[in-house]
Design a protein that fits this description.
α8 (about 150-165) packs across α12, α10 packs parallel to α11 and α13 crosses α29 (about 650-665). The chain starts with 5 loop residues before the first strand and ends with a helix. It is of the alpha/beta class. The protein is elongated.
Length: about 675
Amino acid sequence: MMRPRLGIVAGGGTLPGVLIKNCKRETRDFVVIALKGQTYPATVGDCSHKWVRLGAAGEALAFLKQQKVEELVFAGSVSKPAAADLRPDLWTARFLAGGNIYGLGDDGLLRRLIKHLEREEGLRVVSVTDIAPELLASSGTLTRVKPTKADLADIAVGAAAARELGRQDKGQGVIVAEGVIIARENRLGTDSMMAKLPAWAESQERHGVLVKMLKPGQERRADLPTIGPDTVKTGKRHGLRGIAVDSGNALILDRAEMLKEANDAGLFIYGLTTQDAETLYHPLIYLIAGEPSADNLGARLMIGLKQLTRGRLRFAGVGGAAMSAEGLESLFPMEDLAVMGLAEVLPRVPTLRRRILQTKADVLARQPDVVIGIDSPDFNFRLEQQLAGQGIPLMHFVAPSVWAWRAGRAKKIAGFLDHLLTLLPFEPPYFEKHGLATTYVGHPILDSRADQGDGQAFRRARGISEDEQVLLVLLGSRRSEAACHLPVFAETVKRVRDEVGTLRVITVTASPTEELVSQAVKQWPDDVITLSDPSHKFDAFAASDVALAASGTVALELAMAMVPSVIAYRMNPVTAWLAKRLVKVRYANLINLILDREAVPEFLLNKCQAELIAPAIISLLTTPERRQRQKNDYADALIKLGRDDEPAGQRAAKTILGLINAKKNDAM
């Protein structure tokens, strides 16, 4: 049966010539519409053809009807035309005026054109693969050189990024190097994208993979992803390691020549299946912690995520020692962000701004599956606000205490966050009423094993007898906090020692405070045991009789360890003045907040004075009944916090993975 006459709309490149050869080989009747400034003259040769400019669609259709063409195929690339070629004829002007086509991307415009040609002009538009199915890319490695494990990881990252780019109808290809997207295709095409890459020298190591994927839901009868010998030559010139394409959805031109070019250059060509993309892809979780307590929260979150995914995910971002131990390579030292309070933040504004810009650039380059700011609101909220609208889900772990002060923050962060994870059960309604999806996950400190320290072993190792009393002094995890507390805590320790006699003192430091505290306590009377190794922290807690601690997350760790304590906190005078006028709650200590009474003595702001704090510590050291009463209060508060529930890290991890999967399903 004779096939209907075919019209080939020929753009640039070699694809139109391939279709012409196929038609000649199969003795199929055809004509060519050659686009001025696009089609190579040698392509049409002696074929029946007509040259038309890009804006003269009416002229092209008249020729096709005259030639009794029934089927039409679009083949080849279209580069930016001259202004004169774009001048629309009457048919083109009517088509452009027939609907709002100016906001459409390439695929949207082609889809609209194909629909119009079939419905209004009676043509049947076919795919290149209907005429030359042998052009479709097969799966697996097509070259002698095979992609390494690292290359496959880059391919998976690139496939996800290319699909996201395609979902936005902006392009089909990206270039990935070591998990980072270093280039994205736009309407100017792959060659234009690669031309922006730096030149490569033979002495340099090759890096980077070009990944081209079909756009999600793309009209398959036009503009399929395409590679050929020229793609390989350009890739070689820019030092790429290889090229990966969407198997069964991409075209390979001049296959034999292309593979020879790739083999000679030492590049791999890989056909990626949908199953490959699912199997190879490990979600990228971008975490940002700015202080030791957030670093610990981040580490427990990473543990939960790795357990649920069996380690099939990647991490990037900013963190400290705890997150580094779980596999995070921090973008810069976390200590740059460890600052709290208005007066304390102001001198650090230039550094914070620089780090915000650096982190934003890194996020946009990596295109993670989700960004999670962990506490540190002075930095994270500013960053998250700048990332809003970039197509990357934004989560925040640890709600701002809007129930305590500055309630307006709930509405503000609802404007740029996608999801909030809270530590306390009463927090979600404050944010949900502003439309922010919020999940109570519990406090990760409950999973910290703070209650499993070996106090006896710690005492034996450091020569502390069973009858010696031990005071644990915790000055805060931020350098600015420790600097504020050192004078008053030093005077408090002196007063307590003068009253009770023999007293051993232990202090535990975090990386931002280690040098400051270690030097300062050398001036205190008697030897102070200073710990910087976090692995012995909870042993030190268990060895202690009473603690003096700066208010913060550590208060909950002390409750877990059943260490009776006194809480104190001092701020810069300007910050303290603001806090007294803005804070609406009666207590700062989490145990007191949960119980709604002062189970743990608090000495805050102007009450943070040695002459007030020391008697409270002395009372605990000398009165066993007071210590036991506080331990009983600890137990009640921990039950209310959900101590026996599912680990908070796992609950948070489930919520995060659910958000990632929802985004993936929306994109498909």
